[in-house]
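Justification of resources, computational component.

The compute hours requested in this renewal are based largely on the per-chain cost of generating structure records like the one below. Each record pairs the submitted sequence with a full structure-token output. That output is archived, and it is also reused by downstream analysis tasks.
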Amino acid sequence: MINTHNFEKIQGKYINLREAQIEDSAFILSLRTDPNKSQFIHKTDNNLEKQEAYMRRYKTLDNEWYYIVENAMSSDSSALIFYQKHTQDSKNTSSHEANKILESSHIERSGISTMQNLDSQKSLESKIKIPDLQVSAGATHVHHKSTNADSRNDKKDSNKNLESSTTSESLGTQSIYPTYNTLALQYFQTQERVFELGRWIMSDKAHFLQSLESDFLLKVAFYETLNLDDKHIFTVKPDNKKVMQFHLHWGAKSIGFDKQEGVEVLLFTRQDFMKHRAKFEALLYR
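The structure output for this chain reads:
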């Protein structure tokens, strides 16, 4: 399938994925030049004209898909109910699974890094010690936060975070594109294109469920909506151990370390996606 730049929005429960437009350049630039979010991504000049030119070039390509992650929640959504439920009961199966997932949720990929401040789930974190999920293009890394704060104040902060996130508000970016990673191309012994999932950067306004669903829906887009291939890669900086744990937890496998780029190359397949899909959906949608 080729990108004709008229693809439909992918709708989720907490977020939607829509095509990035030239008009999104300022938002994208604000994420990519954020000091906290940019430390594991390719350097981006803080120049709006250059970013707009980059997006105009993207519009001429037929083999890349650039998404804006937009909010699909309201303050009275079931996501808030989900959050409150698991704040009250951290011993059930879903909370245990959420802990395992989010403790390893720092997803570093070449060209993507999602650095997300999870102030919205401090009270849940105080119960099950979920780390701060930070995703950014080229890399994602975890910061463990203090859990000594008063849980009632934390819940108030979380609810405020959700209520301040209005429908259709831009929350982040995601992308599918051909990789130029030499190790990956040599591994598959092909001149055919091999896809990479990346450019994953989430704003501080995003709730952790929105970050997780953005990762899940991008894989749905790749394997089902677009049906591009039976495999894709992402790359991880070696010091982003939580990112590595996240991918490995969900079935990715290392195919080697690229010394030139300084990244671990991870392979993820359609079979891996299908094997773990039900578990991921149970976490997001139960």
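Residues 87-96, 98-152, 158-166 have pLDDT under 50 and may be disordered. DSSP finds ten helices and eleven strands in the chain.
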